[in-house]
Amino acid sequence: MFVDQAKIYIKSGDGGNGCVSFRREKYVPNGGPDGGDGGKGGDIIFRVDNDLNTLYDFRHKKHFKARNGEPGKGNRMHGKNSDDLIINVPLGTIIREAETGKVIIDMAHPGMEEVLLNGGRGGKGNQHYATPTMQIPKYAQPGKSGRDLWVVLELKTIADVGLVGFPNVGKSTFLSRVTNARPKIANYHFTTLNPNLGVVDISDGKGFVIADIPGLIEGASEGVGLGHEFLKHIERTKIIVHIVDVASTEGRNPVEDINKINYELKTFNPELVKRPMVIAANKIDVMQDDKYLLELKDEFEDKGIKVYPISAVTGQGVKELLYHIHDLLKGLDDETLVYEQEYFIDSEEVKEDAFTVEVLEDNTFLVEGPKIEKMLGYTNLETEKGFAFFQKFLKENGIIEELERLGIEEGDTVKMYYLEFDFYK
């Protein structure tokens, strides 16, 4: 089953906690700290799998979480880093931030691999916190939490040429004749409900990729039917080939059909109608007269749009059409249309002067931050001068103000890493 959009939750792994441990050898009565560091949490990595052409697997699995790093151990043993979690997606998958819809990354190149969320770093063991004034630190750094995000995966087919046309004009038959694709073909409307891709091999060895875009209807650009789902697959194509029923087997006027489809293309994305176009006047094998063929030539060839009479069933005229498309492509930029990044995941560490205050149970307040942790490492709180410096630090950095804003009262407990004290003004 073809699926071209899915919403999933991703989370990188948490870093493992550092360890609090002390040497306990028989002949080392005053063993120092030897707590090891925690391991890094796993990254979330997206990778293009060229064998995939649908997002169907994401209909059943919507939560992807990398494993956490292992905690550190005694004897300076480092916790094991977690393996990264790799999520395979089809070529052409755009990853958007779910709430804003902004593009995070466009997986537009074969074999592309991108780290979307970094795993949390492991916490440092207590061996790192020994100082001349604090030789038995009973604190180890907790591991950093991983990142999490809801994202929308959107598949936009990557092809050089897009085939457009109303239902039942012969697009699938044409694709099966000129490529190795084998789309479902039948004589009724909406046989094709997903884009089919095929590669055209030209004699000089330089082929190109064609996408059969499912039959469009009036109002498609406004979302009528499956309009938006179909139209988005033509946005990356370099050339648009209109396939029309020049025999009017269903009573349709091919000139009107092209104008209607161009209107839908322009309404959906004005850039689409600026791309090179070719008209394949199909079904000449059942054409009773050349009325509509002449009308097509009169209407469009003066505008620089070539009309090629063909029969997808017998193959008549197909070779000439393919070589014209090939020549057009040679004059165009080889680069695939890639959607620019609009949403930037903040992967930087917390600013040095930032801190957090968390209200715990039993009137306890947990205060943490890089600068706080560093200050505790070089301050001797057992001296009068050191304690005065500590109080000044809390006030000047807004920590006292934040504690009071959160409702701290005299006698409540404040925890800062290995330090714990009662709050008094």
Automatic annotation (TrEMBL):
<comment type="subunit">
    <text>Monomer.</text>
</comment>
<dbReference type="InterPro" id="IPR036346">
    <property type="entry name" value="GTP-bd_prot_GTP1/OBG_C_sf"/>
</dbReference>
<comment type="function">
    <text>An essential GTPase which binds GTP, GDP and possibly (p)ppGpp with moderate affinity, with high nucleotide exchange rates and a fairly low GTP hydrolysis rate. Plays a role in control of the cell cycle, stress response, ribosome biogenesis and in those bacteria that undergo differentiation, in morphogenesis control.</text>
</comment>
<feature type="binding site">
    <location>
        <begin position="311"/>
        <end position="313"/>
    </location>
    <ligand>
        <name>GTP</name>
    </ligand>
</feature>
<dbReference type="InterPro" id="IPR014100">
    <property type="entry name" value="GTP-bd_Obg/CgtA"/>
</dbReference>
<keyword id="KW-0963">Cytoplasm</keyword>
<dbReference type="InterPro" id="IPR006169">
    <property type="entry name" value="GTP1_OBG_dom"/>
</dbReference>
<dbReference type="Pfam" id="PF09269">
    <property type="entry name" value="DUF1967"/>
</dbReference>
<dbReference type="InterPro" id="IPR015349">
    <property type="entry name" value="OCT_dom"/>
</dbReference>
<feature type="binding site">
    <location>
        <begin position="190"/>
        <end position="194"/>
    </location>
    <ligand>
        <name>GTP</name>
    </ligand>
</feature>
<feature type="domain" description="OBG-type G">
    <location>
        <begin position="159"/>
        <end position="330"/>
    </location>
</feature>
<feature type="domain" description="Obg">
    <location>
        <begin position="1"/>
        <end position="158"/>
    </location>
</feature>
<keyword id="KW-0342">GTP-binding</keyword>
<keyword id="KW-0547">Nucleotide-binding</keyword>
<dbReference type="Pfam" id="PF01018">
    <property type="entry name" value="GTP1_OBG"/>
</dbReference>
<dbReference type="GO" id="GO:0003924">
    <property type="term" value="F:GTPase activity"/>
</dbReference>
<feature type="binding site">
    <location>
        <begin position="212"/>
        <end position="215"/>
    </location>
    <ligand>
        <name>GTP</name>
    </ligand>
</feature>
<keyword id="KW-0378">Hydrolase</keyword>
<feature type="binding site">
    <location>
        <position position="172"/>
    </location>
    <ligand>
        <name>Mg(2+)</name>
    </ligand>
</feature>
<dbReference type="InterPro" id="IPR036726">
    <property type="entry name" value="GTP1_OBG_dom_sf"/>
</dbReference>
<keyword id="KW-0479">Metal-binding</keyword>
<dbReference type="InterPro" id="IPR045086">
    <property type="entry name" value="OBG_GTPase"/>
</dbReference>
<dbReference type="GO" id="GO:0005525">
    <property type="term" value="F:GTP binding"/>
</dbReference>
<feature type="domain" description="OCT">
    <location>
        <begin position="347"/>
        <end position="425"/>
    </location>
</feature>
<keyword id="KW-0460">Magnesium</keyword>
<dbReference type="InterPro" id="IPR027417">
    <property type="entry name" value="P-loop_NTPase"/>
</dbReference>
<dbReference type="GO" id="GO:0042254">
    <property type="term" value="P:ribosome biogenesis"/>
</dbReference>
<feature type="binding site">
    <location>
        <begin position="282"/>
        <end position="285"/>
    </location>
    <ligand>
        <name>GTP</name>
    </ligand>
</feature>
<protein>
    <recommendedName>
        <fullName>GTPase Obg</fullName>
        <ecNumber>3.6.5.-</ecNumber>
    </recommendedName>
</protein>
<comment type="similarity">
    <text>Belongs to the TRAFAC class OBG-HflX-like GTPase superfamily. OBG GTPase family.</text>
</comment>
<dbReference type="InterPro" id="IPR031167">
    <property type="entry name" value="G_OBG"/>
</dbReference>
<feature type="binding site">
    <location>
        <begin position="165"/>
        <end position="172"/>
    </location>
    <ligand>
        <name>GTP</name>
    </ligand>
</feature>
<dbReference type="GO" id="GO:0005737">
    <property type="term" value="C:cytoplasm"/>
</dbReference>
<dbReference type="InterPro" id="IPR006074">
    <property type="entry name" value="GTP1-OBG_CS"/>
</dbReference>
<dbReference type="GO" id="GO:0000287">
    <property type="term" value="F:magnesium ion binding"/>
</dbReference>
<feature type="binding site">
    <location>
        <position position="192"/>
    </location>
    <ligand>
        <name>Mg(2+)</name>
    </ligand>
</feature>
<dbReference type="InterPro" id="IPR006073">
    <property type="entry name" value="GTP-bd"/>
</dbReference>
<dbReference type="Pfam" id="PF01926">
    <property type="entry name" value="MMR_HSR1"/>
</dbReference>
